[in-house]
Each structure stands twice: as C-alpha cells, then as structure tokens.
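Researcher: Good morning. I'm working through a list of sequences from a screen, and I'd like to move beyond sequence-only analysis. For each chain I'm collecting a predicted structure so we can compare shapes side by side. This is the next one on the list. No need for commentary yet; just the structure.
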Amino acid sequence: MVQSVMSMPSAKRITPKTVEAIFDVPKADLIPIVEAAIGDGPITSLEIEIAHETEHKGAQSVTIIPTFYYQTARGKSGKITIFVKRQLNADHREADNYLAFEEVGIPTPKCYGHLVGTNGEEILFLEFLPEIGLDVQDEFEVREWLGLLARISAMPLPFAHFKINSEILEAEAERDKRWQQNWALSLKRMWEKGTEGELGAKIKALCDDNPSGVAILKDYQSHVDKQTTRISKDALAQGDACDHNLGWRVTDQGKEIVVFDLGFKIGHRFADISYVIDGQLQSCPLSPKEIASCFLNQYNNLSGESVTLEEFLDEAAWFADADKLYSLPWLLDIALSGQLTAGTSRPDEIEKNRTMIQDCWLYDNLTKLLESASNHRPANRLGIATK
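Model: Good morning. Structure tokens for this chain:
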C-alpha cells in the first residue's frame, strides 16, 4: 500500500552528543552487548556518542542509534554503531525471532543481544544498516526482495518456536472471531462517516453511489474467507511485507538484503507476496508476469512444489482482496485521526495523513473491493494471461 521510490540512508548525521546511558541502561550493563558486537573483550573503557538519527518512527517502538567507542584489555580500540530498539508494548518480543531466523538462514540484521527495560519492555541491540527501503526502479533490488519473500514462504515448518499445533489454531480461531465482530462494526461506521462527509468528498460520493455497500462487502468478506480457507496452506509469513521493513548490508560480494521488524507468524504461503504484487511493485521495470514468475520459480525450487502460474495467481488474488478487507478498520482509524504512527502531533502532518488515507488508500481499497464483489471474485488487475 505504501510505495517507496528508492532505497535510502537509514539515518542522518546530527551534531554528536555524549551520553551516559541508553534508554536508562547504564554503561556497565551495555559492555557485554558491545563485547558481543565486536567479538572481543573484555572492554575496559567505553564512551557513548549519539551522532545518527533515524527519521523512521514506528508505531510499536522507539529507536536510538548510539556509537560506542571502546578499548579492550588487550589494548585494542575502535568504534561500532548499533541500532537500538525499545518496544513500547512489554508483551511484544522479537529477540527470539532474530535467533531463530539466523539458525535457518533468513537474512536479518545481526542481533547482538537484548535487555529488559524498567517497565518490562524488550530492548534490542541490532546491526546498524547503512541503507533501508527499496528502489522499485532497480531490477536487482526488486528481484532480491522477491527471492527473500520466496525463501520466507518456502521455509520448512516447524522450526524453533514457529510450530503449528492445536493451541495456535484455537488462538487464531478466537482472534478471527473477535476480528469479524470488530470488522463488521468498523465497516458500518465507515459508511456512516463516509455518508456524512467526514471521510472526504471522494468517499462520500462512493458511499452515496453504493448505499448497500456495507451489506455487499460483508457478503464478499464471507465469500473471500471461504475461498482463502479452501486454498490456504500454512507457512511462515511476515505479515507486514512492506519495503520499509527491508535493509541492505554491504558484503564482499556486493549488498545483501535483510528483513527487520520481525512480527512473523504462521500464516498462508502466498499472503505476503499477494500484498506486494498487487500494490507495491506497480511502477517497477518488471512486468506483472515477470514479478509473478520470479517469485514462483524460486518458491517452487526452494519448496520442492510445482505450483503453476495459474494456481499462484488465483491464490494471490484472493489473499490480496483478503488483505484489503482486513486493512479497512486500520485505514478508517487513520482516515479519521491522521495518526500514522505513534507521536505524530503536528497539525500539518495530521491533515496530510488524513487526506492521503481518505483520497488514496481507503478510497482505492473500497473501489477495488466493490469491483471484486460485483464479480464475486477478485478482478484480474494484473492483466496476466496464463493460457
């Protein structure tokens, strides 16, 4: 849904300032983290400087980028910059994911360790990536991302804590039940607000033209749910396959793609790629068929399966519409509040966000879903002929 135009530096240089702690963690407790990062020790002297600042603000975390100047007992001195991320929700954990993915070869930033903050929140210490995002005009970067998504989808299960069992299935069923109830209420509220003009002129016109839109989309959601259940095959899923969750590390062979913000789960094998292929790569140099074929060829090679292009496109289309339906409550909240991430407060930012969501994201999703509902199946928006 969010389209980036290029990969970009992960942080900007700022006037350096010396600090004595990171997120209230004192130097003494940071020394083992730095020793793990440099692979040497013991460290006898440590100074901390903040000379980088990221412009990316997450909804679930806050970050800081310190540079550590160290000296070891053997007389070695040096510096290392580390990306430090503190979760806002004490129940949210990512450290185990980083360790699990390292074991099975999914490329992520190196995790140097984690600590627990004063409120029980996880504080992660990760490899600092010089570049993040995706240049959708760069064929190499696009193909690398498609390969990464294929690797994630084809990863054999179970491994580490990613297991499919009765408890997980029961928890997902209960979560789905709650989601269905909340989703129906949000849809009704959306049409009320839209008809009243609180979601902009474009959505007001759409609601006026489709007075039965709530009933139509509820029926279509039920149909989509049956179809995705029918074709679903459990797999590892990122769940938020966005280009802003990508980064690049420099190696002797060039640059290597890595994925971060690891809120991974057991999902559906083509849920991630369906979200990507139907939105984020519309302006890349590869045609929709080349994108689909690039992903599918790698998925089949890695998984040992033989999914045809026709089968893949059918699955991806259903999951793309499922994602559009799933995102409606979230989009409604932002369309009304203008709050894209935690901490957004400037009036001009709020109004810009609100307009963007109303006139672009929400309007686009509703238009496409109503089109699909009229056909009782996803429209062929990619225009790929399979025969």
